[in-house]
Amino acid sequence: MVSVEFIRLKSYANDESSGQVQIEGINHLTELRDKNVLIVEDIIDTGLTMVKLLSVMNELHVKSVKVASLLVKRTTRSNGYRPDYIGFEVPDHFMIGYALDYNERFRDLNHICILNEEGRKKYAVTK
Length: 127
Description:
Blueprint: E1 8-13, E2 16-24, E3 36-44, H1 48-59, E4 64-73, E5 85-90, E6 95-96, E7 113-114, H2 117-122
Parallel strand pairs: 3-4, 4-5
Antiparallel strand pairs: 1-2, 6-7
């Protein structure tokens, strides 16, 4: 039997990681115990978010876990984490579109692009 679960992980404000990973929608994931899990991620940046999620999966005692990511950013800020399956490696710029957001904006673009400095300033949120 195959099932699909959705969770949301958030660690960014504007174009910087807060260093804290917020996980939403994890209450029902205890049903994953002893199951094979495939995590489908949009982008791996520093790797901190995925390491946190994998720690949670370990606490849930899943049978196995694999990670597929559409994008992996080439950045010196990386902790070295590499997913099992990679779509594309991208340069160290802030990417938006095709579900990648900047402060909850631009998810609906039907393409992926780099958000320039003018866009970052215009759509920044106050901290």
